[in-house]
Queue: 2 jobs
Job 1
Amino acid sequence: MPQATIGVIGGSGLYRMEHMTEVEEVKISTPFGDPSDVITIGKVNGVSMAFLPRHGRGHRLNPTEIPVRANIWALKSLGVEYVISVSAVGSLREDYAPRDLVIPDQLFDRTKSRVNSFFEGGLVVHATFAEPFCPHLSKLLLESARELKDVTVHAGGTYVCMEGPLFSTKAESNTYRKLGMDIIGMTALPEAKLAREAELCYATVACVTDYDCWHEAEESVTVEMVVQNLAANVKNAQRILQNVAQRIPADRAQATCGCSEALATAIMTDRSAIPAEVKEKYSLLVKKYL
Ligand SMILES: CSC[C@H]1O[C@H](OP(=O)(O)O)[C@H](O)[C@@H]1O
Ligand SMILES: Nc1ncnc2[nH]cnc12
C-alpha cells in the first residue's frame, strides 16, 4: 500500500487534486465501513499526499451522511500525520467577504446527528479539545496562504458547525453573530474531533462563499452562489496546498504541537478492563498506550 504523510480532505467544489503526479487510487475498508470515496495518492511538488473528497466524487453524500470515522481511519492507516481540510463556509461578519480565505482557530458545535468518537464498547477516552485546530499546521497554512498576493486571508475565527443540510434561518444566523461566531459550515465536526482522537494534526482552509442569510444588503445563500464563488476559491486552495507541501516537516518530532500525543493521558479505562478484541480493534490508534 502506498503511504503519505499529508492528507487532504476536499470539500464542496474540490473533488480532485490538481498538479498531482505519480497518481495511484486506493480503495480502503475500515472497521467503520468504507470512506467517502477511493483515496488518491501521489506527489505534489515532490511531496507525497493523499487526497479524499469528503462528499465523494459527484458530491453524493450530505454532511450527515459523510462516513467521518472511516475517512479519518483510512488516512491514518496510510501513514498520514497531517490532515488539511478544505471547506466552503458562509461568513457571519462584514469584513470576511465572499472569496476571502480564513484559517479558523475555534469551533462551536451545533450538530445533532453525528457520531463524535471512535471509542466505544469498553474503551473510554477523553481527549483534550480546547484548541480544536492544530496551531502548528494552521500557522504553516497561513504562511502559505499569505504568499498569494491577490487573495485576502484572515487569521483565526470561530467556525460554527451546523447539522444541515438546509441552510440556517435568519434567527439562527443572527444569533450566531451575537454569540461571536465568525463563519458557518456543516463539516468541520466531527472531523476535527476524530482527527484529534487519531492523533493527527488537523487544520482548515475555509473558503468564504456567501454571507449566509443575515446580511440586509446581500442575497441569502444559495447553492448557485456557493458554486460560483467556489470556482475561484478552490483554485486558490490548490495553490496553498502546493505551497504548504514544501513547508510541512517530514518528521513530526519537529512540530511544536501536542497532536501526536493527544491520547497519552486521555485513556480512562483500566487497561486490565479493556477486552482483548477491543484492544485489537483499536490497535491502529492506541497500541502504543496499551
Ligand atoms: C454546497 S454549500 C454547503 C456545503 O458546503 C460545505 O461543505 P464542505 O465543508 O465539505 O466544503 C458545507 O459544510 C456544506 O456541506
Ligand atoms: N452559509 C452557509 N451555511 C452553512 N454551510 C455553508 N457552506 C457554504 N456556505 C454555507
Job 2
Amino acid sequence: MTTSAPNQQPAPTTQGDAPVINVGVLGARGRMGTEVVKAVNDADDLELVAMVDEGDWLFGLADAGTQVVVDFTRPDVVMDNIRFCIDNNIHCVVGTTGFDESRLATIAEWLAPKPEVGVIIAPNFGIGALLLMKFAQEAARFFPSVEVIELHHPNKVDAPSGTAVRTARLIAEARRAAGMPPAPDATSEGLAGARGADVDGVPVHAVRLAGLVAHQEVLMGTSGETLTLRHDSYDRASFMPGVLLAVREIGGRPGLTVGIEHLLGL
Ligand SMILES: NC(=O)C1=CN([C@@H]2O[C@H](COP(=O)(O)OP(=O)(O)OC[C@H]3O[C@@H](n4cnc5c(N)ncnc54)[C@H](O)[C@@H]3O)[C@@H](O)[C@H]2O)C=CC1
Ligand SMILES: O=C(O)C1=N[C@H](C(=O)O)C[C@H](O)C1
C-alpha cells in the first residue's frame, strides 16, 4: 500500500505502460465490500490501497493515496463518506442505496467547487438489471397496468430496493412521456401495504426470503396479455464488472453521474 499527503491527488503508479488506479473500499468487511476487495485484488490495473469499515478512520483513505473510493456501506452513513471524498479530491463510485432528488442535489452542490472530482451513484451495477430497466422503459407505453416486485435476501437494510425505485421512476417517466393515465386499480386496501409502496404511481412490492440474493420482476398487462421481465443476481460477483468499469471510467467523468448505463452505451 502506498502513502501520500492528504488533499492531493497521488502520482499514479504503473502496471507495464498502463497507469494503475489506487482504490479504497468503504464497507470493506460487508457482503459487497468483500467481493469488491477480491475483484480489485484480481485486476492488474487496480491497486487496493485502503480497506475501511465501520469504526475505521476515514483519513486512512487519503493517507493511503486513494484515487477512487468504492462505497458499499449504509444509507445512513453514505452522505458523510461522499462529503469526505469530495473534500479530499477522491473520486467516488457509490453502490449504496438511499438516494433521492434532495441527496443528489446536495452532492451536486458539494461538487460545484471541485470540477475535477467525479461521483457515480449507481442503484445497480449488474448488466442484466440495467437491461431490465431499459426494456421496461421501452415496453411501458404499451401496457396500461404495471407493477414492480423486488425480491432480496432477508439481511437487506432497506425496502424497497434502490433498483426498484429507479425502475419504477423510469417506467413512470416513460408513461408520462406517452401521455398515459394512471394504471387502472379499483381495489381499496383492506390492510395498509397490501398494494405495496406507491413510487411515482407504480406499485412496488418487496419480498425478503432466505436463499435469495437480488431479483426483480416487472409485470405489465393489457387486454388479454401480460409481459413479465425478470432479472436474477444469484451471486454478488454479478455486480463486479460494472463496479470495475465505473472505477476505470470515473477519472474521465467529473461531476455527478447517476447510473452506469451511459458507461455501457445503453
Ligand atoms: N448498486 C448495487 O449494484 C448494489 C448495491 N447494494 C447496496 O450496497 C449497500 C451495502 O450492501 P451489503 O454489502 O449487502 O451490506 P452489508 O451490511 O453486508 O455491508 C455494509 C458494510 O458497511 C460497513 N459500514 C457501516 N457504516 C460504515 C461507515 N461509516 N464506514 C465504513 N463502513 C461502514 C458495515 O460494517 C458493513 O461491513 C446497501 O445499500 C445495498 O443495497 C448491494 C448490492 C448491489
Ligand atoms: O442490498 C442488496 O443486496 C442490493 N441492493 C441494491 C438495491 O437496493 O437495489 C442492488 C441490488 O438489488 C442488491
